[in-house]
Specification:
This protein has 102 residues and is mainly α. 47% of the residues lie in helices and 0% in strands.
């Protein structure tokens, strides 16, 4: 995720089209998806602009994070972290669809 691009606005039509059978929250579902390696890497890459351990930060960057994990670019190849599963990507998208509840 490039430092200079900043957060991306939500594409409401796209997220509205996701199938979301259950309620998704930051505390119950999203927070645990980010490892300590993810958190430290993104703080370094974004100069501290994105803190994956912080609800408010992830909410602001949610659409950009979604595009990165859905495209397999986050976590970056070679980081030692496994790419997100399709279920994880969908859960994150559903969190966005539902208004990023805490």
């Amino acid at each position: 995720m490039a430092q200079d691009k900043g957060p991306v606005r939500y594409n409401h039509a796209f997220f509205k089209s996701l199938t979301c059978p259950t309620k998704v929250t930051w505390t119950a579902n999203i927070q645990k998806m980010f490892t300590s390696t993810d958190v430290s890497h993104m703080k370094q890459v974004t100069g501290g602009a994105l803190d994956l351990s912080n609800y408010s930060s992830v909410k602001v960057w949610a659409s950009k994070i979604y595009s990165e994990v859905a495209g397999g670019a986050m976590p970056p190849p070679g980081s030692g972290e496994n790419p997100w599963t399709s279920d994880m990507v969908n859960t994150f998208g559903c969190w966005i669809q539902q208004g990023c509840p805490q």
